[in-house]
Amino acid sequence: MTRISVIGAGFGALTAIRKLRAADPKLAIDVIAPKPQMVYYPSTIWIPTGLRTPEDVVIDLAAFFLRMGVNYHAGAVTGFKDGGRVVVTDTDEEIPNDGLIIASGGRFIKKLPGIEHSITPCEGVDAAVRIRDRLAAMKGGTIAFGFAGNPKEPAAMRGGPVFEFMFGIDQHLRKRGDRDAFKLAFFTPAPQPGNRLGPKAVSGLMREMERRGIETHLGHKLKGFEPDRVITEGGEFGADLIVFMPGMTGNAWFDNTDLPRSEGGLLKANAHCQVEGQDKIYVAGDSGSFPGPDWLPKQAHMADLQAEAAVANLLGEFEGQPPRHTFKAELVCIVDTRSSGILVRRTEKGSLVLPSTPLFHWAKRAFEWWYLRQYR
Predict the structure, then answer these.
(1) For residue 125, what is the domain's CATH number?
(2) Residues 121 and 233 both lie in one domain
(3) pLDDT digits (tens, 9 = 90+) for 100-150
(4) What is the DSSP string of 68-132?
C-alpha cells in the first residue's frame, strides 16, 4: 500500500489531505502536526474587536481526520532520515513514507532589536487576544501598525492582514466613541505599501488611511523598537501599542535536513511544487519558495492551489508520469474594515480593485462559513 505523509494542519495540508483521499480511498495518509487543529487565520483580524472569539477560529480536526481515514501523529517535525523517506518528530517517533508533502508554514523573522515590545498579529490566536486585551484596557494613546519583509525573499511577506487589523481597530474605536482619544500610525520600510497588491490597490489603501486620519511613516528602514516607540532610520515616534508583522523565513527544522533552500531560507521548489532535486517530496504554502512573479502571495488561496498541484504530481509519479501540473499565480483578497471591504484580485494578466462596500465584508464572512464547513 502506498503511504504518503503530510506535514502540517493548515490550509495547504488540509487541501492536500482532501485531494489525496478523493483520488484514492485506499491510500495510507499520515498527518504530522503538533495539534489536531486548524487556525483559520483570515478571521483572527476580528478577534481584537470582538467579532470573533478564539473558539470561532480554532477548528478541532479530529472528526475531519476520522472522515478522511488518516493516521494523525501528534508532534513537531525535527528532521528526516533516509533522504526524506522517514520523518522524525520531537516525540522520537519515526514515520516512514513513499511520498511527502510539506505544508508546515513559515516562521517570522524576530531579529529586530526590541521586537519583543511588539505583537505579531498572525503569529496565532494568542497574539490576537493580546491585542484585544490591550485595546480594551486603553483609554487613549498611539497605536502603531507596520510590516516588513525578508530582503532575501520578496514573496515572504504578509502585509495584507496589518491593514485589516488597522482599519478594523479604527472602526471599532469609532463605534466605541473614543477614536479622538487615539492616534493611529502606519509604518513600513516600503515607500509604496501594498505594492504587491497592484498599483491601484496602493492608491486605494493610501486614500483609505488619509480618510481615516491615520498617520504614515513610509520608506525608512526599521532600526528597532522600545516599549513606547518605533525607531527608523528616518526618525522615531511614540507608540503605546505596536502591532508589527515581520518578514518570513523557513522552519527551524529545515536545518536538520538536506533539502535545498532559497536565499531567504524557504524550501526551493520548481513550478510543479516539487522540492528541487528530491525524490517524491513536494511543498505547498508558506514553507516554499516558488518561481513566479515578484508579487506571488503568501496566502491561504495560494497554498490551496499549490497543494492541488503537489498532490496531482505526486500521485502521477506513482503511476510513472513526470510532474506536469502547475499552479496559477493568483492573488485574491478582501481587505476588510470590520464593516466593509475592498476586493483585490491580481493575476499575471492584470489587477482589479473594487471600492469598499459592506457587501465585501459580508462576502468574507460567508466565505469563512463555506470554507470551514468541510472541516467542522
Answers:
(1) 3.50.50.60
(2) yes
(3) 999 999 999 999 999 999 999 999 999 999 999 999 999 999 999 999 999
(4) HT-EEEES-EEEEEGGGTEEEETTS-EEE-SEEEE----EE---STTGGGSB-GGG-HHHHHHHH
Tell me: do 265 and 206 sit in the same domain. Answer: no
Mean pLDDT in residue range 305-316: 98
How do residues 217-239 score in pLDDT, each as one tens digit? 999 999 999 999 999 999 999 99
Residue 145: per-residue pLDDT? 98
What angle separates helix 160-176 from helix 125-137, to the nearest 10 degrees? 30
Are 99 and 145 contained in the same domain? no
Spatial separation of the C-alpha atoms in residues 117 and 238, rounded to whole Å = 13
The DSSP result for 135-190, as a single string, is: HHH-SSEEEEEEE--BTTBTT----HHHHHHHHHHHHHHHHHT-GGGEEEEEEES-
Q: Are 38 and 15 in contact (CB under 8 A)?
A: no
pTM comes to: 0.95
Do 231 and 274 have their domain in common?
Answer: no
| Close Cβ partners of 229 (under 8 Å, ≥ 6 residues apart) | 236, 237, 238, 239
Q: Number of C-alpha atoms within 13 angstroms, CB side, residue 2?
A: 17
Place of cell 503537489: 310
Residue pair 258/277 in contact by the 8 Å Cβ criterion: no
Residues in the chain: 376
- Assigned domain for 356 exists: no
Residue 186 sits in the same domain as residue 301: no
242 in the Ramachandran plot: left (φ > 0), alpha (ψ -120 to 50) or beta? beta
- Shared domain for 273 and 194, answered yes or no, is no
The span from the CA of 310 to the CA of 220, in Å, is 39
Range of the domain at 145: 109-247
Q: Is 280:317 a contact under the CB 8 Å cutoff?
A: yes
In a domain, 331, yes or no: no
Question: d(Cα 358, Cα 373) in Å, to the nearest integer?
Answer: 23
pLDDT, position 211: 94
Quick one: average pLDDT of 149-178?
A: 93
Q: What one-letter code names the amino acid at 231?
A: I
Instruction: State the helix-helix crossing angle for 300-318 and 11-23, rounded to 10 degrees.
Output: 40
